[in-house]
Design brief:
By secondary structure, the protein is α+β, with helices and mostly antiparallel strands. The protein has four helices and 13 strands. A hairpin with a 5-residue loop joins strand 3 (48-54) and strand 4. The protein is globular, with a radius of gyration of 18 Å.
């Protein structure tokens, strides 16, 4: 419900725009914290991927692997962010140290563009390969996926240390979401 209101209110004058902020929470409490925030009316997102784990005794279990440890993505206005920080389980919000500090030496609070969140959600929902977050990627060739699960997505390609190609989408302040891809499934743009 909050998503519909946010989308329709963004172009309206006098209504504050919503941004995706990066809330820092205790490790392994991401989903619980997100649920608490949702119960308070906030729109949240915890990027995770469900994987099958196999124990030594042969038992299989579906497990949710959190992509961004100690992080809950919060889609709020700047004023709502100031209210959300009052929750004792939010330690703070990530700042953008690449930006210019203000006159007091404080860096601005980091945000992630809406389109990048949409791309991450699409990648997590459609990819059959494990998605990873990599903060060390250097920009490479820009590509478009021309076949497979991620058809139509645009990003860059990098090669892991084993020489396997990985498709990457930018998450500005966090780095890149990456997934192994067959080099024949992408075309240079």
């Amino acid at each position: 419900m909050a998503t519909l209101c946010a989308a329709s209110a963004e172009g309206v004058q006098g209504v504050e725009q919503r941004y995706w902020y990066i809330a820092i929470v205790k490790n392994s409490t991401e989903k619980v914290c997100a649920q608490r925030l949702q119960d308070q009316g906030y729109e949240c997102y915890v990027p995770y991927q469900t994987e099958e784990h196999i124990w030594k005794d042969g038992r299989r279990k579906q497990v949710d692997r959190i992509l961004l440890r100690s992080v809950v993505l919060l889609h709020v206005t700047p004023q709502e962010r100031l209210q959300a920080i009052k929750n004792p389980f939010i330690f703070g919000f990530m700042v953008n140290r690449a930006a210019q500090p203000d006159k007091f030496g404080r860096y601005p609070v980091a945000t992630i563009p809406e389109r990048q969140i949409e791309h991450l959600r699409f990648m997590l929902y459609h990819s059959t390969q494990p998605v990873e977050i990599d903060a060390t990627i250097r920009k490479g060739d820009k590509v478009r996926v021309c076949r497979g699960d991620l058809l139509g997505m645009e990003g860059i390609v990098k090669y892991d240390p084993n020489g396997k190609p990985r498709f990457c989408i930018s998450l500005d302040i966090l780095g890149y979401a990456t997934v192994e891809i067959d080099g024949r499934d992408v075309e240079k743009i």
